[in-house]
Amino acid sequence: MRRLFWLAMGITIGALVVRKLSRAADKLTPGGIAGSIADGLRDVADAIGDFGADIRAAAAEREAELRAGTGLDAPLPAGDEIRLPGRQRGAHSADH
Q1: What pTM was computed for the model?
Q2: How many CA atoms lie within 13 A of 15 on its CB side?
């Protein structure tokens, strides 16, 4: 019984070692290397996309702060409330 246990243990360990070595060998083939590079590039592209999204969100937040601070989002005055510097409403210049 003991010998049968150790034989089964040896076969199991041997199968696991062969499986690990096969995976490692597959990673070293040109196809495996290309797959690893493609995965790496995909990860880099995702990170760049996330970075761009963070930048856009921060820029939108800062723009909202600036607009609120400068009053750019205040409602525009009605047409009869607009006063231009140096001009009076309804008055014509005597120089013309």
Answers
A1: 0.48
A2: 6
Distance set, CA 60 to CA 28, 31, 55, 66, 67 (Å)? 46, 43, 9, 10, 10
Round to whole Å and give the CA distance between 38 and 43.
Answer: 9
Per the CB < 8 A criterion, the answer to whether 92 and 86 are in contact is: no
Q: What is the dihedral of CA 25, 27, 28, 29, to 10 degrees?
A: 90
**Tens digits of per-residue pLDDT, 9-57?**
999 999 999 999 998 888 888 888 898 899 999 999 999 999 999 999 9
